[in-house]
Each structure stands twice: as C-alpha cells, then as structure tokens.
Design a protein that fits this description.
Blueprint (H helix, E strand, L loop, with lengths): L2 E5 L2 E4 L4 E8 L7 E7 L6 E6 L5 E3 L7 E6 L4 E6 L8 E9 L1 E4 L3 E6 L1
Parallel strand pairs: 2-11
Antiparallel strand pairs: 1-3, 3-8, 4-5, 4-9, 5-6, 7-8, 9-10, 9-11
C-alpha cells in the first residue's frame, strides 16, 4: 500500500523559509514524477512544483526563484525548499507522486503572516 507522509509545514513570517518533506513508501518510486500542490479554501488545487525521475524541475510562475524542489531516490523522498515566503503562499500543501496513477499525501498547512 502506497503511503505519503508529509512534514515541515507551519507558521512563518513573510520573508521567512520552510522546508517541506514527503516520504513515500509501499513501492519503488524511482521512475515517478514527484511534486507539490497547494490549495486554499474555495479554490482548486494547483501545481506548485514537480520533478521528474531525471530530476528535471518545473515550477509555477509565482514561485520561480523562491522555491526549490529536489528528490532523494534512495530515500523515496521529495523536498520543497520555500524561501522568501509571502502571505499569498498560505495554503495546505499536498505531496503528489504519479506513477501509473496519482498518489496524494494528507496535506500540511503552511501559513505566512504579514
């Protein structure tokens, strides 16, 4: 059974940093696309960043230059380093792993105060 366990969310002031982690288990994820999405109340879940098995990253425009996604295949873990955080980054962040189907984490709250 595939499980994704997220950690690293919390409350931070604008301009601060947080690092999210997502540890996957239950199968091999070497060939998976791993990523992070976020969602605010009343809005659709949106892609924040994703990284391919070859470690090619892709970011939504609003986080380019501030967020960095990385992965450790040996640990089946994907990370999201978030710097220069803004209040508009406040959301629940979800880990996503896509290999034959989508798998989702339970979500972790990130709150950025102004």
């Amino acid at each position: 059974q595939v499980q994704l366990v997220e950690s690293g969310g919390g409350l931070v002031q604008a301009g601060g940093s947080l690092r999210l982690s997502c540890a996957a288990s239950g199968r091999t994820f070497t060939n998976a696309v791993m990523g992070w999405y976020r969602q605010t109340p009343g809005e659709e879940r949106e892609l924040v960043a994703r990284i391919t098995s070859l470690r090619t990253p892709d970011y939504t425009d609003s986080v380019k230059g501030r967020f960095t996604i990385s992965r450790d295949n040996a640990k089946n873990t994907v990370y999201l380093q978030m710097n220069s955080l803004k209040p508009e980054d406040t959301a629940v962040y979800y880990c996503n792993v896509r290999i034959s189907k989508n798998y989702w984490g339970q979500g972790t709250q990130v709150t950025v105060s102004s």
